[in-house]
Amino acid sequence: MNYEDVLSERVQSIQPSGIRRFFDLASEVEGVISLGVGEPDFSTPWHICDAAIYSIESGKTHYTANQGLFELRKEICSYYQRRFHIEYDPNENVIVTVGGSEGIDIALRALIDPGDEVIVMNPSYVAYTPGITLSGGVSVPIELRQENDFKLLPQDLEKAISEKTKVLLINFPCNPTGGVMSYEDYAKLVPIIKKHQLIVISDEIYAELTYDGTFASLAQFDEIKDQVIVISGFSKAFAMTGWRLGYVLANPALTAAMNKIHQYIIMSAPTAAQYGAIEGLKNGWPHVEEMVRSYRARRNFIVSGFNRIGLNCYMPHGAFYVFPDIRSTGLSSEAFCELLVKEEKVACVPGTAFGDAGEGFIRVSYAYSIEHIREALNRMEHFLNKFK
Ligand code: PMP
What we know:
This is Aminotransferase. Pfam families: Aminotran_1_2. The termini are far apart. This protein has a 7-stranded mixed β-sheet, with helices on both faces. The model has no long low-confidence stretch (mean pLDDT about 95). The protein is α/β, with parallel strands linked by helices. It folds into 2 domains: about 5-45 and about 285-385, Aspartate Aminotransferase, domain 1 (Alpha-Beta Complex), CATH 3.90.1150; about 60-285, Type I PLP-dependent aspartate aminotransferase-like (Major domain) (Aspartate Aminotransferase, domain 2). The radius of gyration is 21 Å and the shape is globular. The protein has helices at about 5, 10-15, 20-25, 45-55, 70-85, 100-110, 130-135, 155-160, 185-195, 250-265, 270-285, 285-310, 335-345, 370-385, and strands at about 35, 95, 115-120, 140-145, 165-170, 200-205, 230-235, 245-250, 320, 345, 350, 360-365. 4'-deoxy-4'-aminopyridoxal-5'-phosphate binds near residues 38, 205 and 235. 4'-deoxy-4'-aminopyridoxal-5'-phosphate (PMP) binds near residues 99, 100, 175 and 246.
């Protein structure tokens, strides 16, 4: 039996992650140092771990409510209210998910019928386009450009809309570009979203990692708030990637629809992780602030480092990635990353892993220590000297 033939067309049509492919390549090279991984290098703050351990010790080892522990949902709502002035109700508007990843999946599956169009940024996080395909939708990419600070412009959004458009999927602060949208930037999109009755899936997982100015969300605009599904989670701000915990915030009808999928495929998010997250939201903020301070210092260090060694590098305003322009080398993104791993033992991710608009760029994570980044930059300087 040829097992390729039994696979669904949807699964056959998606490609394995371009990030993973690079890591497999890098793992074969001895002494390689990586600037590739999209996760905090910090360990989860101890008091969060403690709360989770204590929950297990006290026998809290069962399923929770499908939507998640009420206390956690209450803390999530109070956090969104306190930080971003957006009101949500713990019963009507929240589902605790298995990471932001599950949130993206259930949001898309709750909304998409075959052939529905989803407008997605290019470049964008690797899971979006495959997620759209798996839900039966059609991706309509909008190219984001460095000269526009990697923002989504109203005229580009207007152009991408057709009568089949149902969803706009955005992510600011953005993986991979580090671009952010301000309240004023979003205000220009609001009339378009309202006029065309778009549902916005807003992936705000990097909200806390905003370095200049304040984080803004489309859900802050009352006239379209009900059209916005917020995706977020604990992986980035609280350094909790391995705990697999996130959440979605949406109007009651959409929450109920997503919860139908969630209750059948997941039941409930990991219980100990939920107890840890309650502790994080209550008492974790000094740690978050400390990590953000550290990311900001690393951002400044790596951007000036790239510009010094001759790669034009945009100053990102959020997340923990830089997206340097490598076109001056004459190499494609893939060739650049392959040669860099082989010759200098530094692993980065080609911009094309995030969509074809990433050609000419590489994605570099700065969720690493300054010493680690310094060593990688030294090796890259040596590499770049060959192209002078
Ligand atoms: N969205 C974006 C933009 C991400 O970068 C990531 C993780 N790299 C996720 C969602 C998923 O995060 P998690 O499932 O760990 O919450």
